[in-house]
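Input C-alpha cells:
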C-alpha cells in the first residue's frame, strides 16, 4: 500500500493507512537550536520511507509560545519561525509525497493562543465588542464581578475562567478556557470564526496537505445560555449521551463538520480528517460519518490493560461499529498525551488512561517497579497484533524504537501545563515528548547539534536508531517488517476469530488467509499450521511463548 506514489494516490488511501505521528519539536533538529524543525523532518524522509508508513501526522508546527506544546496557536496559517518557513513546509510536503507518504496536519479549532491577533484585539476591545465576540467573555459573579461565571474546571486543572484587565486598567470580564489560560476558547456561534477556519483548511489543502487531525473535535459547539449549570450537574466528558451538555459533544457540532466535509470534497482526492473526540463510544460514529470528518480516534486499546479479554471485546465492538457506520476503525496505543505503551505494560495492571503509570511517574520511576523488558515484549506483541487489524493504525514517533517513558526530568525542565496547574499531583506529559535518539552518542543522540529542549536520559543510547538499524531482532526491524508485510496483506475485509480453549490466546484470520495469534498468558502455546512470516519475539520450535504475537500465512 505504501510502496510507491501510485498505490497511495486513490481517494481511499486513508482507510487502511498506517499513520506515523511526528511531534515536530522533538523529532529532528536541523539547525542546532535544541528544537526539532521542518527541515529536520525533510532530512528524515528516507527513514520514514524505510519504515513503511503510509502517512505522517504532524502535531502543531505553527507559531506558538508553547504554553501547551504548540496546541496554543498564534497563527493558523504560518510556520513557527523556530521550526522553519512556509517554503520549508512546501519542500517537506514535496519530499514526503515523492516518497509516497501522505501528510496530515493538526488543526486546533477549539481555542487559539492568547497571543493570537484576535485575542489581542479582544483584550483591547470593549465589553460586547465584535472583537470580544470571537471568544467567550462573561461578567463575573459577586458584587464586583470578582468570582468566575461558573465553577467549571479546566481539563488541565484549576478554573476554566480567567479574569482580564480592561483597557482602562480596571478588573474586567472573564474568558473561558477549557485548557490552559493561554488557550482561550473560540465562540463558534460567530460566523467570522467559522469562515476563518474554512480559510485555514483551504490554505493547507491548497498547499498539498492530504488530511487533518482535529483537536478536541467534540468541544466546538457550546450552549452557554444563562444560568450556567454547576459543575456537579454536568455529565463527564465521555459519559454524555444526549448531545445537550453545554460544551461536550453537542449535536450541532456536526453542522460545522458537514461544512468542512463539503470543502474537503472539493479536492481530488478529497481531503481526509480524523476527529480527536473523547466521547461516549456510542457517539463516536457521528464524527466518523462520511458526511462529517470521516474517521474518529478510538482510544479504547490505549486505555486497556494488556489483557486478552479486554482486547477481544474492544476489537469486536469497534469492528462491529465500523461495519454499521462504514467508517474504518482506528487503532492507537501511544501518542503525545499518554505514557508510552512499553512502560504501561511493564507496570502492574490498573484502571484508567495511564493507570499505575501515573503513580510510577509521580514517584520518580520507583513505585511500582517497572519491568522494562516485560513492558517492551508486550508492547511489541500488542503493536504486531494491531498492525494485523482492519482499519488504520496510528503510530507515535519512538514506539518503533520501543522507547519507554522518560521519568528523568527535573521540575525545572518540565514544560507541560498539566504539571504547572496540578502541583504535586501530575508531572504531565513531557516524558513521552523527549526528542528521539538517532545515534548512540553525541550531545543530543543525533537529534541535533545542541542539547535537546527536554533532557534525554543515558539509556536512550540503547534504543537509538543507529543501535537498531542493522539488528534483525530490534524493535525497529520488527516495525519495518510488519509494515512491509501489512502493505501487501491489508484489506478492507473483516476478521474472523479462531477460538482456543485457552482464553489467553487471541487468534484471528483475515479472508486472504493472513492470521495473527497472540499469547497473553504465561504458558507457551502451539502455533497453528502455516508459515510464520514475522513474530514479535523469538519462538520456541512451533510454540508461541508468553507475551508474543506471530503472523502466519
Ligand atoms: C488534545 C491534544 O492532543 C493535547 O496535546 C492538547 O493539550 C489538548 N488537546 C488541547 O489542545
Amino acid at each position: 500500500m505504501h510502496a510507491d506514489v501510485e498505490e497511495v494516490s486513490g481517494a481511499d488511501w486513508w482507510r487502511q493507512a498506517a499513520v506515523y505521528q511526528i511531534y515536530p519539536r522533538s523529532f529532528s533538529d536541523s539547525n542546532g537550536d535544541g528544537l526539532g524543525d521542518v527541515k529536520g523532518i525533510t532530512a528524515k524522509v528516507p527513514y520514514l520511507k524505510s519504515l513503511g508508513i503510509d502517512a505522517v501526522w504532524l502535531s502543531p508546527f505553527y507559531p506558538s509560545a508553547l504554553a501547551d506544546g504548540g496546541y496554543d496557536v498564534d497563527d493558523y496559517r504560518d510556520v513557527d519561525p523556530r521550526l522553519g518557513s512556509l517554503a520549508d513546509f512546501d519542500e517537506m510536503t514535496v519530499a514526503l509525497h515523492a516518497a509516497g507518504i501522505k501528510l496530515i496536519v493538526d488543526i486546533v479549532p477549539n481555542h487559539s493562543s492568547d497571543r493570537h491577533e484576535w485575542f489581542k484585539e479582544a483584550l483591547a476591545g470593549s465589553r460586547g465588542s465584535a472583537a470580544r465576540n470571537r471568544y467567550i467573555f462573561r461578567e463575573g459573579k459577586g458584587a464586583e464581578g470578582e468570582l468566575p461565571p461558573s465553577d467549571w474546571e479546566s481539563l488541565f486543572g484549576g478554573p476554566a475562567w480567567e479574569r482580564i484587565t480592561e483597557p482602562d486598567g480596571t478588573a474586567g470580564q472573564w474568558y473561558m478556557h477549557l485548557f490552559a489560560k493561554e488557550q482561550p476558547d473560540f465562540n463558534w456561534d460567530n460566523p467570522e470564526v467559522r469562515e476563518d477556519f474554512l480559510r485555514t483548511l483551504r490554505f493547507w489543502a491548497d498547499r498539498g496537505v492530504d488530511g487533518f487531525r482535529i483537536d478536541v473535535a467534540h468541544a466546538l459547539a457550546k450552549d452557554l445560555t444563562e444560568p450556567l449549570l454547576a459543575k456537579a450537574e454536568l455529565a463527564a466528558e465521555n459519559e454524555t449521551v444526549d448531545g445537550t451538555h453545554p460544551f461536550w459533544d453537542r449535536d450541532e457540532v456536526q453542522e460545522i463538520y458537514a461544512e468542512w466535509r463539503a470543502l474537503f470534497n472539493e479536492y481530488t482526492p478529497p481531503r481526509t480528517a480524523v476527529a480527536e473526540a473523547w466521547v461516549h463510544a456510542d457517539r463516536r460514529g457521528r464524527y466518523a460519518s462520511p458526511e462529517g470528518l470521516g474517521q474518529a480516534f478510538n482510544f479504547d486499546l490505549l486505555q486497556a490493560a494488556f489483557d486478552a479479554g479486554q482486547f477481544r471485546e474492544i476489537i469486536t465492538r469497534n469492528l462491529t461499529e465500523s461495519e454499521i457506520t462504514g467508517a474504518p476503525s482506528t487503532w492507537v496505543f501511544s501518542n503525545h498525551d499518554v505514557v508510552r505503551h512499553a512502560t504501561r505494560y511493564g507496570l502492574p495492571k490498573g484502571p484508567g488512561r495511564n493507570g499505575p503509570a501515573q503513580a510510577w511517574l509521580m514517584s520518580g520511576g520507583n513505585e511500582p517497579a517497572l519491568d522494562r523488558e516485560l513492558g517492551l515484549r508486550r508492547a511489541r506483541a500488542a503493536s504486531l497484533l494491531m498492525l494485523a487489524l482492519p482499519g488504520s493504525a496510528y503510530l507515535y514517533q519512538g514506539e518503533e524504537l520501543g522507547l519507554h517513558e522518560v521519568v528523568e526530568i527535573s521540575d525545572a525542565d518540565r514544560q507541560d501545563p498539566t504539571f504547572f496547574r496540578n502541583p504535586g499531583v501530575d508531572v504531565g506529559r513531557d516524558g513521552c515528548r523527549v526528542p528521539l535518539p538517532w545515534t548512540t552518542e553525541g550531545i543530543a543522540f543525533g537529534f541535533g547539534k545542541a542539547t535537546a529542549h527536554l533532557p534525554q536520559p543515558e539509556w536512550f543510547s540503547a534504543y537509538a536508531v543507529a543501535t537498531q538499524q542493522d539488528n534483525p531482532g530490534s524493535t525497529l526491524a520488527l516495525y519495518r517488517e510488519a509494515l512491509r508485510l501489512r502493505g501487501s496483506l491489508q484489506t478492507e475485509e473483516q476478521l474472523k476469530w479462531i477460538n482456543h480453549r485457552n482464553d489467553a490466546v487471541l487468534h484471528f484470520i483475515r479472508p486472504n488467509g493472513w492470521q495473527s495469534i497472540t499469547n497473553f498468558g504465561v504458558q507457551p502455546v502451539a502455533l497453528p499450521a502455516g508459515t510464520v512470516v514475522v513474530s514479535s519475539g523469538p519462538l520456541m520450535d512451533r510454540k508461541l511463548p508468553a507475551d508474543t504475537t506471530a503472523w502466519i500465512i
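The chain has three domains: 13-110+191-478, 117-176, 494-552. The chain has 15 helices and 17 strands.
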